[in-house]
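Format notes (please read before filing issues)

Several people have asked whether sequences and structure tokens are stored in separate files. They are not. Every record keeps both together, in the order shown below: the sequence lines, then the token lines. Line labels are part of the format and must not be stripped during preprocessing.
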Amino acid sequence: MAETMERPTAMLIVTSDWERGESVVRRYYDANTENGNHIDDPSGDALYELIEDLNDTDNTFVIVSAADEALTWWASVARREEGGFEVVRRDPSRHEHEVEIQHRASHIAKDLTIWLAGRSF
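Then the structure lines:
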């Protein structure tokens, strides 16, 4: 049976710079993989794909962090040699540091999407 994942609702904030007549899209977080893939504000589906693409050789982890470098929260998902994934969530401003082992990319993507929704931007 194939895994299915609910599509999370995404919110995009567009502000205007009226003096220059430009619209500015505000980024909230970035995802970066060991092999150089980068996605601004990845959806749950994009997180799922990044996690599914992890392997044991040259793409063993993905890190999601705040786009604003002044914010220090982050999460990582790393492929384990023993199978499954190690998931770390860290938010010093809330005294959070969680480490867990997961085996399904769809659950990890869903949990990360929910966790990201609760971060400060």
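For reference, the curators noted about this record: The beta strands are 14-17, 22-25, 29-33, 38-40, 61-66, 74-79, 85-91, 96-102. Residues 28-117 form one domain.
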